[in-house]
Specification:
By secondary structure, the chain is mainly alpha-helical. The chain contains five helices and three strands, in the order H-H-E-H-H-E-E-H.
Length: about 150
């Protein structure tokens, strides 16, 4: 019987989350929306939600790990501010799809305009077919008066 002894090395690595993980949750998207205009402290952010403060803190921690939110200590308060430059990855990923949808919507708009034009033409031709020309009684050139 042989006994093999191995050593385990524990290497700590910085775990950085993906930006898309940050925006995947609706609560985190709401937090991003809240602090997009101005920095807010953790308590002010937590007051906007019907979940516990530790849950909000966890969402903010994830946003911080994704690089979407910076946490700044000012006195006893911790303020969160948006890191908009890190949302560029999301924008860059979405751009090809935005272009695709704009093309599709423009094509659909042209199709609807074509349908409306055809519909108007059909309505005009139906009106002409339905209404025979009437001669008024007061018209001296009408056949009845001749």
């Amino acid at each position: 019987m042989y006994i093999r002894v191995t050593r385990c090395l524990h290497i700590e690595m910085e775990t950085r989350r993906d930006v898309f993980q940050g925006i995947a949750d609706p609560t985190r998207r709401h937090i991003i929306h809240l602090i997009a205009r101005k920095s807010m402290n953790l308590n002010a952010i937590a007051d906007k939600f019907d979940i516990s403060r530790p849950a909000v803190s966890n969402h903010i921690k994830i946003l911080n790990e994704c690089g979407l939110v910076a946490i700044e200590q000012v006195g006893r308060e911790r303020y969160c501010r948006i890191q908009p430059e890190n949302l560029r990855k999301v924008s860059d990923w979405i751009d090809p799809f935005r272009e695709l949808w704009e093309e599709k919507l423009n094509s659909f708009e042209k199709y609807l305009e074509t349908l409306q034009t055809k519909s108007r033409k059909n309505e005009k031709s139906k009106r002409k077919k339905r209404r025979p020309k009437r001669r008024s009684k007061s018209n001296p050139h009408s056949k009845k008066n001749i």
